[in-house]
Amino acid sequence: MMRFAGLVTVLAIVSAFSACQSEEEIKRQRYITEGILVYKNNCANCHQNKGEGLAALYPPIAKSDFLADKNAVICLIRYGQQGPIVVNGKPYNRPMPPQPQLSDLEVAELVTYIYNEWSNETKVTGVKQITPILEKCKK
Amino acid sequence: MPVLSKPLNFWAKNKPSLLLVGLVAISWGCGPTNEKLPILGQREAVTKMVNGKSVTDSVYQSIPDFRFVSQYGDTVTARTLDNKIYVADFFFTSCPTICPKMKVQLKRVYEKFKDKPDVMLLSHTIDPDHDSVSVLKEFADNLGVTGRQWLFVTGDREKIYDIAQDSYLVTAQSDPSAPGGAVHSGAFILVDKAKHIRGIYDGTTEAGVDQLMKDIDRLLAEYKS
């Protein structure tokens, strides 16, 4: 697993420097890099650096079945979450505070990072995609 | 030449043992493990008469008595911690900022000293309006804490803030502009069996808490000898 991660890192670095890299890939790398910072500053306190969550207090994000509904994830980042939820079969019941300080772009970067790091996506969730979703679930 | 060769030879022959002497000297001189942890806080000189002579002694700041309620609903006073080394901290269950980090770190301390009955942990909520006994119980359960080694206490808000600032030497105050409505220090305070403060650590970092765990071992060793 470590070896695989190392290989991926090397590949990522090589591809980042190669001239024939697509514009989409450059954008993805940029979103992920920014997304890591947004995550560390706004989410990692509770959900931890590797997205593993904390005991039965805060649910994991990494490999979480909650990621299946991306629209719900986008909305709960901005507007928070109240009441009991079940993640990977385990109950959690602690409010998540809303994060109104995050701009649409920052939410997009964060979502891109989360889904590339802990789900199986290798694409950008762009800000243009995010804005209408956030608009719809505005409370 | 023959004159010079002798000291050189002496050095060459005895190099390993000389090196050893040097290392011992160094570790003797500045080895922290031999030293006792300092007693922190204010101290005052108290002069009293003993056998007709006046004797001056320094009296160290210590944690006064208090009266709070634990996650099990029973009263916790300074006597509950008699004959214990304990780590105190201040937090609140709905805190979105540094508290989760502190709890991850304090959980490491809990796991490491689980089988040491002389060590206790005392977490004070600074949001007693919200953090009732049942809220604290649920929090402790969710964190995976059982038994009475780690007590989560609530009580009168002002008394908690006062003991934090005046006795444990850390910040705790309500601040509506802060996330969660209160600001507090991320410190862990190490208290010995005489209720003296022996160390204050950054409870939000792994390095700070590694140091705390080393110092708990040193403090435990003090009571063994």
Automatic annotation (TrEMBL), chain A:
Residues of the signal peptide: 1-21
Pfam families linked to this entry: Cytochrom_C (PF00034)
Sorted UniProt keywords: Heme, Iron, Metal-binding, Signal
Q: Which domain of life is it from?
A: Bacteria
**Molecular-function GO terms, alphabetical:** electron transfer activity; heme binding; metal ion binding
Q: Which InterPro entries match?
A: Cyt_c-like_dom, Cyt_c-like_dom_sf, Cytochrome_c-type_DH
Annotated ranges, domain Cytochrome c? 30-118
Protein name as it appears in the record: Cytochrome c
Q: Which organism is it from?
A: Spirosoma validum
From TrEMBL, chain B:
Keyword Disulfide bond present in the record's keywords: the answer is: yes
Question: Where Cu cation is bound, by residue?
Answer: C95, C99, H184
Q: Per its UniProt record, what Gene3D superfamilies does this chain match?
A: Glutaredoxin (3.40.30.10)
- Keyword Disulfide bond in the entry? The reply is yes
Pfam families with a match to the protein in the record: SCO1-SenC
Q: Which CDD domains match?
A: SCO
A Gene Ontology molecular-function term? metal ion binding
* Sorted UniProt keywords: Copper, Disulfide bond, Metal-binding
Show where the Thioredoxin domain sits. 57-221
Q: Where is the signal peptide?
A: none
Which Cys residues form disulphide pairs? C95-C99
Q: Which family does it belong to?
A: Belongs to the SCO1/2 family.
**Entry protein name:** SCO family protein
Organism per entry: Spirosoma validum
- Lineage, highest ranks first: Bacteria, Pseudomonadati, Bacteroidota, Cytophagia, Cytophagales
